[in-house]
Amino acid sequence: MCPGAAPRAAVSPPSTSRPQSGREAHSVDTPCPGAAPALDSRDMRTDDASARPGPRSSARRGAPAFAGAPQRLAAFPPRTPLPTAPVPATGAWRPGDEPGDRKFVDVGDLDLESGQLLPDVTVAYETWGELDADASNAILVLHALTGDSHVSGPAGPGHRSPGWWQDMIGPGAPIDTDKYFVVAPNVVGGCQGSTGPASDAPDGRPWGSRFPDVTVRDQVAAEIRLAEALGVRSWRFVVGASMGGLRVLEWALLGPEHGIDVAAIGVIASGAQTTGDQIAWAHPQIAAILADPGFRGGDYYDAPDGEGPHVGLGIARQIAHATYRSAVELDQRFGRIPQGGEDPLRGGRYAVQSYLDHHAHKLALRFDANSYLALTQSMLTHDLGRDRGGVEHALSLVKARALVVAVDSDRLFLPADCARLARHLPAAAPLRVLRSEHGHDGFLIEFDQLGPIVTEFLATEAVRGR
């Protein structure tokens, strides 16, 4: 449970019905006042131009200036009006929305590590390529905190943005869909089709505050059932970055325990257990959401547009986003440049503040505050060594060949965290390091480096497998 959250009610028993929701999906990202359109594929990949000079929207120092922030916080009148379209209470995908390229599989009830039962679980996923007759060419791709199953493909109905790893997956790409059958699920606890807090509980109401705590191991347990439903008994490669890397490590142990072989893993900008520094950075993010009056204790799904917890979610994103980029990049890219015609001495913003406002607004349009809490908490409790004799011993049990990649400027998952993995995984290749000024987000940007690394590793694995 997130720190400061009220105790959740007991999980409801299973039900055979699943009511549908007719809420329409929003399909256009709207930048905040003064922000230029983003250049990135989704707001995890953040090499955008949102800090270019633009019209001014003034707000009191320290108050959120992104679209949808309460007008009562403003101490200086805005020179241009804030956008009139209010932010929805949730950006979650709901049954009845356009599915896009999503597919769905019901994996049944999940017995959670907490001792609770999560009934009637659905996993949303996307696939590319074809599964060989002997089911030997399957690759599993696992997304980060605010990602989803749309790893590759264009934006369109059901998908607000293009795939978040577009340069890595596709015909002729490092993960070549002419060779491999690629599967990408949305994590349980998320909000883009898999069961999560915004999903309907058996009583027909969204889970909301009643959604039980899920761990990384719970999430992998659901993904194991997805693999079974797809007829995959062996993964050629399981790869993920950041939060996805946590699940990769659990897959390396839990998959074989459930009869699913994992031949090789790729862990990118991730770690074996959450650090004190990561817990510290997560704490104010959680607090920002819980403190938003629009959060309503987690039961806000019937709130009118503009009255949900988008301000708290946006602030959480701003805090997180600062850890996703490097100090060098933010200083060199933005420095102390004012945003457009705004004057920081008179309540205006610096360009870097506009940049953060832009990403706060983008996330609020496509994500869910409860999912942000649930997934953040699953990351905080991540410890590969829990009940396995400690991290080093747990890593020593991994049989899969391993590719470990760090980003040299990453201040969220430090290169030392990745080096620890490479040092203790028995079949790890030497640690690879991306040289980047972009910090943690380097895994979403430095494809000219990451692509050849993955291509080389998979080619080596293909030779080993002959």
From TrEMBL:
Transmembrane segments: none annotated. GO terms for biological process: homoserine metabolic process; methionine biosynthetic process. It is an enzyme of class 2 (transferase). Homodimer. This is Homoserine O-acetyltransferase. Pfam families: Abhydrolase_1. Substrate binds at residues 317, 441. The keyword Acyltransferase applies. The gene is metXA. Residues 40-50 have a biased composition (Basic and acidic residues). One of its GO terms (cellular component) is cytoplasm. It comes from the Bacteria. Its EC number is 2.3.1.31.
